[in-house]
Design goal:
The complex is a heterodimer of chains A (177) and B (331).
Chain A: H1 2-7, H2 24-40, H3 51-63, H4 66-82, H5 91-107, H6 115-141, H7 150-171
Chain B: H1 2-7, H2 9-30, H3 32-37, H4 42-73, H5 76-118, E1 128-130, E2 136-144, E3 152-155, E4 168-171, E5 174-182, E6 187-191, E7 198-203, E8 209-213, E9 221-223, E10 236-239, E11 251-259, E12 266-271, E13 280-284, E14 291-293, H6 314-317
Antiparallel strand pairs in B: 1-14, 2-3, 2-13, 3-6, 4-5, 4-13, 5-6, 7-8, 7-10, 8-9, 9-12, 10-11, 11-12
The chains are: A mainly alpha (177), B alpha+beta (331).
């Protein structure tokens, strides 16, 4: 299994594992965080998009390695926490760690290349991410946080739609097998 | 057996990483005083150091591209004139606010004087909250928070420009927020619509005091206003000066809508400053000192700008209970 993961061939469930040019993952993750922070200043519409989450999901399902998926999720989440003021560090970290793990586990089992399956996967993982965030905030920080509302539903649809385009763009950064 | 350990390795790592972050959260919740004291966690420092230079470069690039378009392709002379007029307009707006506040205050004092003359037998003690802030530094918004739920922005001025925590940030249209973290060249500003924010506020017409609190939504709420108080959409709200961050009388916004609730009204406020389109802001370099001056007390010094953090000025704030309102902001 590990040989297949590192060689970029086929996993045991015959799902292709993709590899990327050096620095792509770190570069894309940093760019997503910077863009998220940068776009936020141009209006509230940017709150409807969660670029760091999309990058976590994308590399999770593409690399199909739960270990790298959860570590990337943790790193992105912790940096996102660090860039906000009122979040204790670890809140987004926990949520994105779990999303990274689930995304890579799901990616190893089903085909995630089709735009429709990508849309559905991002839509579901967006809400999973929000549920984890809400539980963390309620249980550990004593804050009120919505599990679902119209704003979040709209945000999940927009993020899922954007993910289809963004994932197609990121597919171009794959190293040929 | 080795196969089992290999198979469960990701799950074990997931548990460890998650638990470590839970412990990190618990540690921060227990040590909340450290954050209130003003220590910036190292990881936030690093994150700001990584991200803000790129944001600064992005803002610079965009402003240059915009500058080429408007300054060269467009009419250059018109643009310069517009820029000068806009600056002049901003200054006049600020001056106008000051005069409006002073005129309102004169009217109120006149009424107090009339009352006193009409009732010479009634013992009265009047106290006035005085404070002024004149020195400011202009700054440009270069970025915002990566967290969609956090309403903060980064500006391109920092410790080197004498900015300190808890300084107020405004635009000529109205207040924007307060400084929460200061880095050498950049500063993080907590906007007034962030859920952690609270500003001492009052209705311009009725002088009813309340607290403007962020709700996480674009529109903050005016809190602690009883149901008997008549509040109409469009009523202007200004700063009360009680938070010792903003001087009294700066515009905050107008009432968007008000609903009766228990025990207080739910009042949504449309902010005067466009918080979603911030470009240039002013940082009030003087922290407000709260002096309670009784009439006829010549020994009371006039307000002086000070760089002492508000936390160090508690005794002054406690000097007169008459001037404090229930639910005063805990900025």
């Amino acid at each position: 299994m590990s040989w297949m993961l590192t060689s970029g061939m086929q996993s045991e469930t015959n799902v292709e594992v993709h590899k990327y040019y050096g620095g792509t993952v770190i570069g894309a993750a940093l760019l997503a965080l910077i863009l998220q922070a940068f776009l936020h200043k141009f209006g509230y519409w940017a709150e409807l998009v969660e670029l760091p989450l999309l990058v976590t999901i994308y590399f999770g399902v593409s690399r199909r390695n739960p270990v790298s998926g959860l570590l990337l999720g943790a790193a992105i989440g912790l940096l996102q926490d660090a860039l906000s003021h009122d979040n204790p560090i670890g809140m987004y970290g926990i949520a994105k760690t779990l999303v990274g793990y689930v995304a890579s586990s799901v990616g190893a089992r089903i085909d995630t290349e089709h735009p429709l399956s990508r849309f559905g996967l991002v839509f579901l993982l967006f809400h999973f991410h929000q549920v984890v965030l809400a539980i963390t905030q309620r249980a550990l920080l004593g804050r009120s946080a919505p599990l679902i509302n119209l704003h979040l539903f709209l945000a999940s649809l927009i993020s899922a739609s954007l993910a289809v385009l963004l994932f197609a763009l990121l597919d171009r950064l794959r190293r040929p097998a | 057996m080795p196969d089992i350990t290999t198979r469960h390795r990701p799950l074990a790592l997931l548990t460890i990483v998650t638990l470590a972050q839970v412990l990190l959260l618990a540690f921060q919740v227990r040590h909340v005083n450290r954050v209130q004291r003003g220590d910036v966690p190292l990881v936030r420092y690093w994150a700001a150091a990584i991200v803000t230079p790129v944001e600064r470069a992005g803002t610079w690039t965009l402003s240059k591209i915009g500058g080429i378009w408007t300054g060269y392709i467009g009419l250059r002379g018109t643009r310069d004139e517009n820029f000068r007029l806009r600056n002049e307009n901003d200054q006049l707006k600020l001056r106008n606010r000051e005069l409006e506040t002073e005129a309102g205050e004169a009217l109120r004092l006149e009424n107090v004087l009339k009352f006193r003359q009409a009732h010479p037998e009634a013992p009265m003690v009047a106290a006035q909250v005085v404070g002024s802030s004149t020195s400011m530094v202009a700054a440009q918004v270069i970025g915002a928070s990566a967290d969609p739920n956090s309403h903060t922005v980064f500006i391109n001025r920092g410790e080197r420009d004498h900015i300190r925590r808890n300084m107020g940030v405004i635009t000529p249209d109205g207040i924007v927020g307060k400084v929460v973290e200061v880095f050498p060249d950049t500063t993080q500003v907590l906007l007034i619509n962030d859920r952690e924010s609270g500003v001492g506020a009052l209705f311009s017409a009725t002088r009813t005091h309340g607290v403007l609190k962020g709700s996480g939504d674009p529109e903050p709420r005016m809190e602690y206003i009883v149901n008997d108080e008549k509040v109409q959409p469009g009523d202007a709200i200004v700063t009360s000066g009680e938070d010792r961050i903003f001087p009294k009388g700066l515009p905050i916004g107008v009432v968007a809508d008000a609903k009766q609730s228990n025990p207080f009204q739910i009042i949504r406020v449309r902010t005067a400053a466009r918080l979603d389109r911030l470009e240039d802001v002013l940082v009030l370099l003087s922290l407000q000192e709260l002096n309670l001056k009784a009439p006829g007390d010549s020994s009371a010094a006039p307000a002086k700008p000070t760089s002492t953090p508000p936390a160090a000025q508690q005794p002054a704030a406690k000097a007169s209970p008459e001037t404090r309102k229930p639910g005063a902001p805990q900025q």
